[in-house]
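Allow me, if you will, to draw on your knowledge of protein folds for a short while. The matter concerns a single protein, recorded as an amino acid sequence and a row of backbone structure tokens. Kindly check, if you would, that the fold set down in the tokens agrees with what the sequence suggests. You will find the record immediately after this paragraph.
***
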Amino acid sequence: MRAVWQLSLQLWRQMAVLVVLAGALWLCGLGLLVWSTHTDASLTGTGLGLVAFGGWFWHIGQGQMLRGLCRPEIHLLPRFRARLAGAGALDLTLWVALPAMVAALCGMPHVVMGAAGLLLITAVGLASGTGKRVGLFIWAGFIAVGWKPHLAARVVDIAMHSPWTPALLALAAVLVFRLALRPLLRIEDIEPDTSPLESTGLGRMQSPAMQGRPARGAIGKRIQGWFDGMAQRAMERALAAYRRHPGTRQRMTLIRSLLLPHDNPEAIALRLVLVAAIVGAYFFAILHRPHYNAAVVGAYAVLLSLTRFPQLGRGMLRMRPNLADLYLTLAPESRSEYQRTLVHALLLLVPVTVLSALAYTALGIVLVHATEPGRMLLTAAIVGASASLVALAVHLIGPEGSFGRGLVNIAVVLGAMASYWGGYLLLGLLGVELGGALLALVAISFGLGVWFAAQREYQRRTPCFDPPPA
């Protein structure tokens, strides 16, 4: 039983923020189910929906955790599969059996169908977390609903009145569980790790246990190969330039090619093209109707460009043992000089982030035919520059634990979103010129202040080459 409990705690140790949020949804859902017996019976559906929503995110995290846990050497542990089955039974009890039992006691109609739906949601969430292609089918399902909403509503109405629906949902859940878990329980060699600071975006949502693992699937491996080839060519060019002219600028270019292998011009262009293709396909498939505010595009662009920095914090922790080799190679005169070199190398991420935010915003402007493109681009550029400076600073000197980093990232994202909408309104009230100048004065000053303070603190610290705590 102790082994089952330890397996159940793995998600908390790796993604504490997700556990807290999903657990809060679970408690709120059960609370509404219990409360519905005393007030409104219609709250049972809302409560079960909250449990399903929380279970979806919970099991995405469980899938990521299992993908990193189920390694060949782990299978040598005594009765590992039996202990894993026990942890799975406990998980299904909490997320499927208990909510279904409470809903039945509350007199909810179609409770068997609700329980089968919860089981299918947990299975699909687990499969999505393990990297299976079930996410593509979910995306295709949303596209179909967007194109034919009336047909989708008709299908749902027929399914709600069919006695075969619960059995079909349960059978589909068992099939998805089998497709997700069978590769994890198969013993096979692990492919070489990728760079902790890779920038392909293929491993951006990986859990701590599976960081550095290459993307699965033929398409993911092909894209990863493109980025790795570009990184190799960029490294060879930087090395050749340094051999010809061993100056300070060539030295810094070589260090950046080593630390940030996928932030060369070719890789940046490829990443922008891939994102543009995905966003364009999604827009023309679903969001072809102008039923939303075009300014939201800029907010999404800033948010998407900032997703790099949480990975930077995790990657720098994982790179600690490897940075000892860099320290010996550089042979700095002082520890602060070494820290300053790393800071200047990582500062490249700020212009890359601003360029990404502008490119994503311009793409959105073209797709939605925005009426105020200059206002959106200027706001995205200013807020992107300020937010990237703050994000780089806090992830460079911030907490090492996953929970603390998660809170810091949430604060940065919320601050960036508030700055974008406040700046966008300011430019609308005062005009693009005056409003942009005032927004730049406040935002850039704040970003530079935070960055210079973090830079001084980082240079003051002693370099650490120990591996991060488990």
